Structure prediction request, 372 residues.
Amino acid sequence: MEFSVFRQVLIRALGHMQSIVEKRAALPILMNVKLDVTDNLTLSATNVDLELVEHVAADITLAGKTTVPVQMLYDIVRKLPEDAEISFKQSGDQLIVSSGRAVFKLPTLPAENFPAMAGSNLTTKFQMTTGDLAHLINQTKFAIPTDDVRYHLGGIYLHISDEGKQKLLTAVATDAQRLALCSMAAPVDSTEMPAVILPRRVIGELSKLLEDANVDDVMVELSDTKARFTVGTAILTSKLVDAQYPNYRVVIPKGNDKIAVMDRKQFVNAVDLVSVASIDKTKSVQLTFSMNKLVINASSPDAGTATQELDVEYNGDTEFTVVFNVKFLLDVAGQVEGDKFKMEMQDPLSPTTIQSMDKKTDSLFVLMPMRM
Prediction:
């Protein structure tokens, strides 16, 4: 095997690969990237549950395939000059990597032993814009639990929902304290897709591919057990979370009658400022609504008290107080699009809905108050 490739072409693909591979794997070959040289250079990385294949343009002298430690190769390429041309040549059980006067000899393992994710019948196949898929993910991923205890909540629930006569592609994530929902018109050929839970890990890798994408569309392929996303020259395949997602609609309140409308930036800045006094275990912030006024308050024995007032539109006749975890409140408010948003509340312990006032909005957030 012998080929050469420019650094700027290779570095992005290797960056994607090294984040897929486990830093410590039971099998040494799982810490390697597979290099398959035919008409171009194909790189593959896997952690068994997730597989990424990416094609890179290269100048091929001699075809072949092998595997090398991905972290070592990535570190070498990362530290070379931006305009460097890198040559690769296999010699026995080593891969010789050279650029200019620098020469590296990397250990290899046989490509035949590299595990490939078993193919499955991906029954649903549809295309959507990279921007739309990124929007669905970015509006919801912050609400995925960061622990592995609640396995059935460990990802984004992607499914088709019905709103009247319209079919919507809907993404939902929740950690039981907050819920994020984003919907858009279902792409052509997606209406019969299975409801799937995309794992947290694949969401992270897919976000990187979409952010780096230089193409307009992404191909989505789904079955009951696997998902595959083709973004330009990269193909990301993942197992799905094998669990039943809970009926999230039961926690979305319908009759919240206390409604406050406010400027989003002012609110975020005020909560963030007041939060300097929220350093106790609860990390709480108190919101007190009255006629056209909101008082934001946080306090702790060690940090004292912080208070700020905002002008708001509020429909209540009497004063109403509710307490939230300050981080969760800022996470949700930070995702709201547009200049103004509304909070719909019922009582201090019932779920609160938060939504942009922009009529084009396609996202809804639910936040559970804290019991104080």
Summary: Residues 7-20 form the longest helix (14 residues). The chain is about 20% helix and 45% strand. Residues 2-113 form a domain with the DNA Polymerase III; Chain A, domain 2 fold (CATH 3.10.150.10). The mean pLDDT is 93.
